Amino acid sequence: MLLYAIRRFGLALLILIVAVTVMFLMIRAVPGDPVQIMLGPRATPELQARLTAELALDQPIWKQLLIFYGNLMRGDLGIDVFSGRSVTAIVFDQLPHTLALIFASILWSALLGIGLGAYAAAHPNTLIDRIAAAISVSFVAAPAFVVALLSLLIFAVHLQWFPAIGAGEGFWGRLDHLVLPAFAIGLSWVGYIARLVRASMLEVMGESHIRTARAFGISERRVVMVYALRIAILPVVTVIGVGMGFLLSSAVFAEIVFARPGLGKLVIDSITTRNYPIVMGSVLISTGLFVASTALADLINAWLDPRARTAT
Amino acid sequence: MSDTLLEIDRLSVDYETARGDLRALRDISFDVRKGEIVGIVGESGCGKSTLISSILRLTAPNTRFRQGEVRFKGEDLLQLPERRMRALRGADISIVFQDPMQTHNPVLSIGQQMLDIQHRSKASRAEKRARAAQMLGAVGIPDPEARLDQFPHEFSGGMRQRIAIAMALMSEPDLLIADEPTTALDATLEVQIIERLQELQREFNCAILFISHHLGVIAELCDRVVVMYAGAVVESGDVREIFHDPKHPYTRRLIDCDPGHIKERARVLPTIPGEVPDLANLPGGCIFRDRCNQAMPRCAAEVPPLTQLKNGHHAACWLNHKEAAE
Tens digits of per-residue pLDDT, B88-144? Predict the structure, then answer.
């Protein structure tokens, strides 16, 4: 298990390096002189030259990449052109908000989705199963930004149950502010996970080891919750691991609609101003999150499924 | 009568399907006495598996019990509430399934699964574990204590089947159902498993209902045999009687076709020509008629009843009726 974990994280690091390099090159391919856009039309040539040198934009691209990685090793993502603050500090200021949003969304949608799916699979083709299916599919079909706008309108503006914008102060304040965005992002995941768990459960319930467990008089509850669910959950863990990436992008919508601070808002704002250090810093962190979550999903699977430990 | 453990009495089971009822079992009757080994022989699809899942009531949702009783120690299992039925499973009646590669849960350790099936026992975890290790030792798994922590995929097929037998015998059941336990294994392993079963049967003195299509194994292991064809019993009786003096043409052909029985090097292995009749659309008369080389006019008109010929030897064929033979 330990060896597997080390190997898996080695792979994750490799993926991270490749992804960050590609992102670095792609940002450079965006047309327009970044220095001119950053400083505006009235900047003096001296100022432009100084910034170009500061950002190492006068160097060949491979050298820029080396400088970038060199600084990265020291935990230095550069200095924000406008505020002069360290990019690392800016990014890590925003990160907790996004993380809280993503984890809250995935937590409630996974719990509800798995419960709904497992229940539907245990009672296939009953009325409840059909209702669950109809709800799940409509959840999946609803785009996150539409749900975000509607829930904002209904629960924050009309009913005034939850705050409309911002991130809140203190634990309960933050939690209160999390409800609507997490609801908006998580809703389609509830349906998706429920469908996935149901299909996966039905497949596992038909396997002969389930018949064996029943033939030994093991209670139906334990058969479903332990003998079947533990296997049926495996593809769900993988999907959630990969889904963290998609959640990061839906978090952008939620952060804009609910005017929440966070990585998504930071990236959008800095791309429009060609604020390279911030963009690279946020992209690096998001990529890192994505790579870490897929690696974590694989580790959870390896922990749940002994067969996965010996494979690869 | 008091030594009868299991009585199948005129059991008929259908499967409801889109193209009508599939008559999987029709009028099955036989019994198993305490400590006895009864073999059930028949081709694939003859209803063997339906029969055992009916005994344990682990049937598919489209199964319909049309008539008859399955009496275990005098109680009709088909009428028992699910709660009482579950109390019997794995306690008084245990089962070893066909495919050892699929029979264990792949994500739980063997020890965990062997602990779980002792859910009725009041013993401590350590005692249950010791009992599990003891059972693994009894079926010949070396170093059982350490192997309890391993997972099914770390065992070979033969070992997994022995573990399945250990699990089935753990509660010292009165009846062990073995559903083609050696079909998925190679010949040398088959002999090992059969010998182990025989030893354990003597040790635990349980009755065994042994399902197989391998006549050699049945002849070796069983006291009595039930021959099934297309969902019905065609012949049943003492194992020697059946093999030396079969009274049903199907049994006779089955013995002729057994590879172990063919003395000379045959160019073409003998087969029974024809096909098993469609269970959703049964022809009238004897079900084996189309494939029988001794069929008579009467066979098309009436279903031959399962009649007693000698003490305990039953067959369902008009050839055994004097008036028909004339």
Answer: 998 899 999 888 888 999 999 999 999 999 988 888 999 999 999 998 988 888 899
Contact A209 B103 (CB under 8 A): yes
Domain range enclosing A177:
94-310
For the sheet with B93-96, list strands across it.
B93-96, B175-179, B207-212, B37-41, B224-229, B232-238, B313-315, B307-310
Q: Which residues of B touch A217 (CB under 8 A)?
A: 86-91, 117, 119-120
Pick from A208, A306, A310: CB nearest B103: A208
Same domain, residue pair A246 and A293: yes
Residue A125 sits in the same domain as residue A254:
yes
Question: Which of A123, A126, A210, A216 should one mutate to test binding to chain B, selecting the residue with the greatest count of B CBs within 10 A?
Answer: A216
Total domains, chain B: 1
Cα–Cα nearest to B208, from B313, B217, A212: B217
Q: Which residues pair with A266 in a beta bridge?
A: none
Nearest Cα residue to A206 out of A227, A235, A190, A188: A227
Q: Which of A204, A208, A209 to mutate to test the interface with B (most CBs of B within 10 A)?
A: A209
Q: Check CB contact under 8 Å for B106 and A212.
A: no
- Judge whether B159 lies within some domain: no
Facing residue for B107 by CB, picked from A212, A216, A231: A231
* pLDDT (tens digit per residue) in A26-72: 877 777 777 777 777 777 888 888 878 777 777 788 888 888 888 88
- Give the count of domains, chain A: 2
Residues A291 and A215 in one domain: yes
Q: Examine the domain organization and report whether A13 and A162 are in the same domain.
A: no
Interface contact flag, A307 B102, Cβ < 8 Å: no
**DSSP category for residue B1:** -
